[in-house]
Every structure is written in structure tokens, then in C-alpha cells.
Amino acid sequence: MPRDQETAMLPLAGMKIVELGHYIAAPFATRLLADLGAEVIKVEPPEGDPVRGWGSAVDGNPVWFSVHGRNKLSVTLDLKSPDDRAKLLRLCGRADALVENFRPGYLERIGLGPEALHGVNPRLVIARISGYGQDGPYRDKPAFGAIGEAMGGLRHLTANPGQTEFPPPRCGVSISDDLAGIYAALALVSACWGIKGNPAAKGRIVDVDLVSSVFSLMEGMLPEYGLFGWVRQPQGAAIKTAAPTNTYPCADGKWLCIAGNSDLIFRRLMTAIGQPGMAADPRFANNALRCENVAELDAAIAAWTRGVPAAEAEAVLEAAEVPCSRLYDMADCATDPHFRARSMVMEVADPLLGRVLHPAAPFRFDGVSPEAMLRWTGPAAGAHNHHVFGELLERDDVRPMAGTPESRDPHAGQKDA
Q1: Are residues 179 and 293 located together in one domain of the fold?
Q2: Which of 37, 208, 228, 235, by CA, is between 20 and 30 Å from 313?
Q3: 86 and 150 in one domain?
Q4: Could you report the per-residue pLDDT of 189-243, keeping only the tens digit for each?
Q5: How is the chain split among helix, strand and coil, in percent rounded to 5?
């Protein structure tokens, strides 16, 4: 099937979204929506999204932005300019939704608050992402992703039990921003669904914040605290409610995560590592008993893994049908045959960078290949100014991205930057 036809089958084909995003949270939300087929017009300041200055670059072109800005049309506007604000309002007049992650009150101060936006499009869904939300005593405080981790309860849990010499580490990615972006995308689509088919329905305002996004992951910890006064403490690599489940050192300095906590899997695990007597020991007969005696179990498993390279240990346990995995770094991900076979890792042509690896979108749809969901890589700032302001806004019969020149040639228009 031609790529254009596959793209037209994506569930959000035809949806039109304006992004007023910078750094991570809002652009992450719109990247997901663009991967799902929506037309996303990313509005950047004349100097470009400041995230373009982060990380590595090839000839001045940021590597991260190849993924961060993929499948989006990039235009540049100075929102302090009345003429450019008028252009933005025209974009919003044809859009289904707008996503922004400025500090609360900023859009209102420059005359682009919800009242102005709904004045040109009463059905516009406005998704607002901020550090603490659009109201509450902390709304005006600045926040980045690390603050969401800290206040949302996650960073407290990432420490090793009893360790006080070093601070609890972050997880290594901007998890607060990414979570807020996922929730914003979900809420935006839900709001659009809520007004679909009702000509009298008005657009909704969606309020998502970094702290609440992290806090939502805290499972049953809040009711446990409310009922019993329990405060969950850092667990390290293990969990108190299942055993053996931990991460063990291997002979080559790598680590192996093993989840052997069901009764059947536990017996297979202990047989595989040469400890059949422990498999039959009544002290380890069920999960509750194994949790009581987990230190002895972990010591026995670690004694075995320390004598075997991680890949070899993984192969032994996989042959015994014990859930396990080495702790992958990016080199492992990029070369893993499963990642490659499912196109989770794709090699694509980026006109600004050359051949580059991209992660696939994290969802699959029948009839659409992962490759067809990646229409083009992140463009230069303002690459689509002519197409958007000179063509899209001048046409009343605007079609979704499946019908535009950019969908047929993913890199058309980048020369306009």
C-alpha cells in the first residue's frame, strides 16, 4: 500500500493542532498526536524552540530535534508582534486544538488567552501544561521536570534503602515532562471527542501539570497513608511484595534483572542456577515465605550471576523460561533483533543530519506500518512558513497532512527556512 494511503488510515488524520510549545512537555504531547496522523503546526519564536540548543548537533542542526519535531510543520512567529499574533489567531481559527506550556497567565498577558482564542474559534480545545497547574497557591512558581519528580513523590522512591551519602537519582530522562505530555495528549483527544457531533458544543480547556502527572503514578500510596499512616520508602532494585525479584551483578560488570516470583518460575529459576534444593525448601514454598527469606535467596542468585557474563546468564534463564533481561543501554536497544524486527528502531533519512536512527511511535495500527507513521524528521525552524502562511491559510478546502506536498515528500519545504 502506498505510504500516503497508510498515513490517511491513521486515527487522527484530519485533526488540526497548533503547538505553542517549548522545551519538552507540550512538544512531547504534539509529537504523539502527530505520530497518530494529526496535522501539527509548531509555532516557534524567530530564533527557534530553545530546546534546539540542547545536546549534540551536526553542522549546527540539533540531533534531538530530529525526533522532537518530527511529523510537524514548523513556522516562526514573534508573539510580541501584533501582526504575528493575528497570524496565530488565524491558525487557531482553522484548528481543532491548541497545546501550550507557558507559565500560567503568560498568554493572557499578551492577548492570547482562552477568551481571545475562543473568540476566533469557539470550538477550540486548549490544552495547557504547566509546572503546578493553572490555579492553586503555587501556580506562579517556576518549575522544570526535576521539580515534578521531587514534589510528585517519585524522587523519594528512587534512592537505595538506607543510603544517605548521595541524593536519590533522577531516572535519566525528563519523565515529568513526558508524563504530562502523554496526559495532555489523552485529555485533548478526549475533549475533542466530547464535542464531536454536537454543533452547539463549546471548546474545552484542559489543565495538566508536571507535579500531578508524577503524583498520579503513586499507586496505592495515598490511601495507604490515609488509612494506616504508612509512607512507602525507597525499595532499591527489589520490591517487598514479591520474591525473588531483583537486579543482580554479572561477571562482566553488567546487571541482570530477574523476576522469579511465581511458584513455578521460582522452581525453574533455582534449578537453572544449580540450586534445586532451595526450590524444594519449605522456607521458600510460596511468595509470602520467600519474601520473609529474600536475603538468602538474593545471595544465592547473586553468587551465580557473579560468575557468568550477563548475556550468557540471560540465555540460560531464558531457556528455563524465567523472565529476565540485561539492563539495556542505548547501544543494546539499537542493535537488538527484536527492536529491529518490529521497527522499534528505524534508520531514516534526515536532510539536516543524514542517516539517523529514530524510535518508532509506541503504538501500532492494522494496515499502517511503523515506517508510514514517520512522515518526516524534525525540520529547521520556520521551514514551513511559506506553505502554512502562503498556502494553508489561503485555502478553505484544507485537507489533512495526507494530501499536502509535505506528506508526499517528507522533507519538502525545509528549504524555506
Answers
A1: no
A2: 235
A3: yes
A4: 999 999 999 999 999 999 999 999 999 999 999 999 999 999 999 989 998 899 9
A5: 40, 15, 45
Q: How far apart are CA 57 and CA 65, in angstroms?
A: 9
C-alpha–C-alpha distance, residues 389 and 411, integer Å: 18
Residue 224 located in a structural domain:
no
Statement to judge: residues 171 and 70 lie in one domain: yes
Looking at the chain, the number of H-run helices and the number of E-run strands are: 21, 13
Q: How much is the pTM?
A: 0.91
203: Cβ contacts below 8 Å, ≥ 6 apart = 118, 121, 122, 123, 124, 125, 126, 191, 195
- Compute the radius of gyration of the chain from its Cα atoms: 25
Q: For residues 12 and 14, what is the distance between their CA atoms, to the nearest angstrom?
A: 6
pLDDT, one tens digit per residue, over 33-64 is: 999 999 999 999 999 999 999 999 999 999 99
Gap between the terminal Cα atoms of the chain: 32
Ranges under pLDDT 50 in the chain: 396-417
The domain in which residue 139 lies consists of 3-216+364-416
Active site residues: 177
Q: How far is CA 411 from CA 2, 159, 350, 406, in A?
A: 17, 45, 8, 6
389: which strand partners? Answer: none
Give bridge partners of residue 19 from the DSSP assignment.
42, 99
Q: Is residue 235 part of a domain?
A: no
